Amino acid sequence: MNDKPVEVIVASEELKASKEFKAKNLTGKYPFLETEEGNLSESVAIAKYIAHGHPTLNGTNTFEAAKVN
Ligand SMILES: N[C@@H](CCC(=O)N[C@@H](CS)C(=O)NCC(=O)O)C(=O)O
After folding, report:
1. How many domains does the chain have?
2. pLDDT computed for residue 23 by the predictor
3. DSSP readout, the chain?
4. Which of 36, 28, 40 is nearest to 5 (CA)?
5. Confidence of residue 53 (pLDDT cuts 50, 70, 90)
6. How many Å lie between the centroid of ligand 1 and the Cα of residue 4?
7. pLDDT at 1 > cutoff 70
8. Is residue 40 included in any domain, yes or no?
9. Which pLDDT score is estimated for 69?
10. Which residues does ligand 1 sit against, CB inside 6 Å?
11. Domain that residue 51 falls in
């Protein structure tokens, strides 16, 4: 994930109302992340996905990792 570009889209009401977007984002809530592996919702799941494998975002030891969680 660290070396992949991220495109941030602030969804307009028109985009949110589109059939294509509703099919991707079943909950209709934000944040929402599209990845090559599939789509994710829930902010904590998205944050953990982004932080996975990063040298410091998940903390540098078990205690820090617990604080992040
Ligand atoms: N538990 C979800 C809550 C997501 C949520 O309620 N997001 C709000 C915005 S903060 C939302 O999408 N509301 C509907 C909308 O904006 O159309 C998470 O942590 O991601």
Report:
1. 1
2. 93
3. -TTS--------HHHHHSHHHHHH-SS--SSEEE-SS-EEESHHHHHHHHHTT-TTTT-SSHHHHHHH-
4. 36
5. confident
6. 25
7. no
8. yes
9. 83
10. 28-31, 42-43
11. 13-68
Residue 7 covered by a domain:
no
From atom 9 of ligand 1, which residue's Cα is the shortest distance away? 30
- For the CA of 16, the nearest atom of ligand 1: 17
Q: What is the pLDDT of residues 6-52, one digit of tens each?
A: 889 898 999 999 999 999 998 889 999 999 999 999 999 999 898 88
Determine the atom of ligand 1 nearest the C-alpha atom of 41. Answer: 20
Classify residue 3: in a domain, yes or no.
Answer: no
Nearest CA to 34 out of 53, 13, 6 is that of 6
Residue of the CA atom closest to atom 13 of ligand 1: 29
Ligand 1 pocket: which of 15, 30, 39, 42 to mutate (most atoms within 8 A of CB) = 30
Q: What is the pTM of this model?
A: 0.82
